[in-house]
Task: structure prediction
Amino acid sequence: MERPSHIFRHLGPNWYASIMGTGIVANAAATLEVRVTGLRAFATAVWIVDAFLLVALTAAWAIHWLVFTEHALGHGRDPATAQFYGAPPMAMLTVGTGTALLGGPILGQHLALASDWVLWTVGTVTGLLSAAVVPYRMFTRHQIRPGDTFATWMMPVVPPMVSAATGAVLIPHIATAQGRLDMLLACLAMFGLSAVAAVVMLTLVWSRLVYHKVGPAGMVPTLWIVLGPLGQSITAINLLRVAAHGALPAADATAMSVAALLYGIAVWGFAMLWMALAAAITLRTIRSGMPFALTWWSFTFPVGTVVTGTNALAVTAGSLLLARVAVGLYGFLVVAWGVTALGTLRNSWCGKLFLPASASVSAAAGSEPATPAPGAAAVAGSGF
Result:
């Protein structure tokens, strides 16, 4: 097991992916249309664990910044690790929504909503900073080659989409009509910001796969990240169309419902295509050996957004078939979460996930330190 100082030394923002992946298990369960005995109790338990993990990880990350400041600054300078500054905002937004959906009976409805507002505000502000600052540094500072492109590039631009989806939960609790309208417009603007940026990133990822192929085995799970903006955008637009009925004139709200259905079903179709491609590549890689790393959390939050998106689309369309598909996808999500959580606990206990990038890659491969591609080493080696 690693010494305590080593645990904090290399603790990057990518660790917040575990909070995202755990939180979406709770949130997706809370929103499913199909009810199962004990499901809400399970969701509440997962949310409690996730809230504790958010506090614990944030405290550990604060120690990392205070004691190992140069290492912390180095994460922002690294073109691969910097992408994961989108993870802390999404972790806060996920836990905040879980608090609003599940925390009422424990905290009281007023405190649960107040907590969600705080986490949503902080998560949204830091998420907008992530969406602007990380690309800016990519454009002006980072040295990047075409082969260094990975789906992780979507991480810093997805938080505003998560803010749009989670903000929809808060709109009905705003007292004034003007406040509800302003919040709806802000969420729609963040939806557009993230959606357009994600399309640009998706084009780059597709191009990289065509010309540079799949890449290192440890990076294969990150292909599932593409599902994140797809599923979250379906969730956002279909939740916002519900909120629109309390913020827009009736005719405009009806038009938005039609737009949400058309957008949602079209994007859902592409999400199913990408899921099939990602699954095929993942199975192919598993057969040849895919070492455990925090990249495996890519199997959780992105799939969870497809669950919530499918469920929200089922409500909009009144489709029992889509509701059943959402339940099936949720089953896959729970299995993926369980496997990844156990792998994280096991590899954390033995210290592998706290090693620096090059050492972690070598440990996973069972060989002497090599010189892997910079992006692959930083991401796969440091955990996500």
Notes: Residues 36 and 109 are 24 Å apart (CA to CA). Confidence is low (pLDDT under 50) at residues 358-377, 380-384. The chain is about 75% helix and 0% strand.
